[in-house]
Amino acid sequence: MENRDESIVDLRGESIGNITVQSSTEEVFQNKTLRPILKLQNDLFIQVFINYAIKQKGGFFSLAPEKKMNYIEHVIQRDIKFRNSLKGMVIGLFTVEEYLKYIQNSSNLNKRMMNLLIERLKSQVQLLEEE
Q: Which top-level group of life is the source organism from (predicted)?
């Protein structure tokens, strides 16, 4: 297991964001684990979202930019299957130690994870185009 964990941490790279003595455990987890994973998986998240939008009859692609942002937020918050799929793409890149920390506070960490992902997709809405 140690080789897997070391490989995952090496693949993800350094933490993103400031970690100080005052940082909460959730904030440390967010900056050391969630942000690097979301960055690493970014291209995959974009393709997964495009595929989701196509399977939903492609209406997303004809929306105005502001409505696209609302759609992204709404879909990730409301479609439980889709949200769970996205969570799995993140959790699959946890180390065993990170997973053990995650399960102690999964509800709050899931909220952080999904909010970060929503903001990431919204900031790249111009890349979310039908191929």
A: Bacteria
Residue 15 lies in a domain: no
Examine residue 16 and state whether it is found in any structural domain, yes or no. no
Whole-number Å distance between alpha carbons of 55 and 19: 40
Tokens representing residue 126 in the block: 């111009």
In the block, tokens 């999904």 appear at 114
Please give the Cα distance from 90 to 106 (Å, whole number). 13
Domain extent, residue 34, equals 26-127
- Those residues whose C-beta lies under 8 Å from the C-beta of residue 32, and which sit 6 or more positions away, are 15, 19
Mean pLDDT within 41-50: 95
Number of domains, the chain: 1
> What letter represents residue 111's amino acid?
K
Over the stretch 11-40, which tens digit does the pLDDT of each residue have? 988 878 777 777 788 898 999 999 999 999
What is the rounded CA–CA span in Å between residue 22 and residue 67? 37
| Total residue count of the chain as it appears in this document | 131
Dist. CA 120–CA 90, nearest whole Å: 14
Supply the pTM of this predicted model.
0.89
Lowest mean pLDDT among 27-31, 68-72, 77-81, 113-117: 27-31
